[in-house]
Amino acid sequence: MSNDAVTAIAEPQVTRNRRAAEFWYYFSENKGAVIGLVVFAILLVVALLASVIAPHAPSAQYRDAILVPPVWLEGGRAAYPLGTDAVGRDILSRLIYGAQYSLFIGVVVTTIALVGGIIIGVIAGYARGWVDTVIMRVMDIILAFPSLLLALVLVAVLGPGLLNAMIAIALVLQPHFVRLTRAAVMAEKSKDYVTAARVAGAGHFRLMFKTILPNCMAPLIVQATLSFSNAILDAAALGFLGMGAQPPTPEWGTMLAEAREFILRAWWVVTFPGLAILVTVLAINLVGDGLRDALDPKLKRS
Amino acid sequence: MVRFLFGRLAVLIPTFIGVSIIAFSFIRLLPGDPVALLSGERVMSPERHAAISAQLGFDRPIVVQYLDYIWGILRGDFGTSIVTKQPILDQFFALFPATLELSFCAIIFAIVLGIPAGIFAAIKRGSFFDQTIMGTALVGYSMPIFWWGLLLIIFFSGILQWTPVSGRISLLYFFPPVTGFMLIDSLISGQAGAFKSAASHLILPTIVLGTIPLAVIARQTRSAMLEVLSEDYVRTARAKGLSPFRVIGIHALRNAMIPVITTIGLQVGVMLAGAILTETIFSWPGIGKWMVDSVFRRDYPVIQGGLLMIAAIIMFVNLIVDLLYGLINPRIRH
Questions:
Q1: What percent of chain B has pLDDT over 70?
Q2: B295 — contact with chain A (CB < 8 Å)?
Q3: pTM of the model as a whole
Q4: pLDDT mean over B69-80
Q5: Strand, helix or coil at B60?
Q6: 3-class DSSP state for residue A199?
Q7: What is the mean pLDDT of residues B91-101?
Q8: List of chain A residues whose C-beta atoms are within 8 Å of the C-beta of residue B277
Q9: Which CATH number, 1.10.3720.10, 3.40.1360.10, 2.40.50.100, 3.40.50.1000, labels domain A32-299?
Q10: What's the protein's topology in the membrane (chain A) (predicted)?
């Protein structure tokens, strides 16, 4: 009796390991994806250890060091490796703390959009009928606006700030998850294993979230990485427009907005925050491409 | 085809009604009193408050207000701006050509570079060129374009001094707008150097706005070409001894273009979102900058009308793309 139970549990464990190994095989074949993953891991460590790594406090102003160029330029100082901004704050330290904000924004926004999108999408795809029609029309309405414009107006209504920016971005990213989930659920719903589970007496809730959903996850994971990078980009854009995180928060987009007037005098105040955004978004998109190759059997290289 | 068109319209009209409800609701969702907001948040007597409220129609039931707003829109009346007191529709038509000109140049830039790059990458799959093109495309796709614009200004306007920093044309030139498109108007005006000035103002915004569509089109063209190139009919064409140019240019490209056209159509929404950032950076007097300025001035009627018109444009373009898609690819009509 106990032996049977052990084999019953051990077997899925083996297939899961094999699946993970297969996944890693395809993922690691894509060199870009591995590089992206490494860069992302480094960013994560930097963000977590910001208070240890950063040479200065993010909002400490040094009156004797205003617009100091990076260390390798004439007039640069070793204390400020990437130079200082117009009020004498160390750019490197601000970038390091900024990583916390960007990754936090990405995680929170993606989680809200993913969870909300999955719940709504599963309901739409499973229930069909008028529930489905109403949900999909509402999603069409959200998608009819350019996402950044809708987020901008939402933030204007809710009031500028990082939290409201994150809510707005999550709302505009969510329809993509709803559509993907609904399509996947509709494709899976008529398959035999679902019918079998229904005949065996599984309730609606169990059918929706335990039977069907796990088989729809691949496209959602890929979309989640895309949303992660989109969330960081949009939050930075809102910050740049003055509607996201407010100064003196060391958020990268907000830093760019503050630096705008100095672009022709001090290129470094503009260059580094944007470079940080680009590297982060690029790393996540590289991982996303790798995930898509590894998870989507249609695109797998034969 | 007619049925297909009506099917699309049957979905579009409820969506548009929904869009109008959303645009209409924003101002009512605002925390606080719309009358106080609209009149500049000054302290006012209850009588004056009631008078303004009645003047703006806020004392009526919300459904009546909404129907009144829709009735106005159907007659072409989107209301007036609180700040400039001008009719919103007039402002929109004055500014839209600037955005249209910029978007048009940007999408041409993206198509002219993106499609050949994608085809080339697909033909030379796995080569150094393929990897370079696709690597560059991914960088473009990940680009924070507001930063990209600032970098280009630093380099081309600051260091090289080749291009102006902002605006549509140098202040030296003045001529009445005929078409609203600066490139055409400057030619019509016949003033020496006017066209050159307009073109040099347009270059950097075009590159900035075209970067993400360029990357998306290149990636989509490559994957569509790869899919088509592995089809049997392409192998047949090759086996028949047709020249590689003919096989790729005629047989493969025509079918590969179907998803690419959809992608190009979808870029319209991306462009209008990008215009918000691009126009802000380059002080380009189009509807993107108009919307951002209105958000900052709390000019709610403009935000409301602008949202509605921009959504209508996107929905219209998507409809056109759907119809085009139905024309090229009869399979999806049913």
A1: 93
A2: yes
A3: 0.88
A4: 86
A5: coil
A6: helix
A7: 92
A8: 148, 237, 240-241
A9: 1.10.3720.10
A10: Multi-pass membrane protein
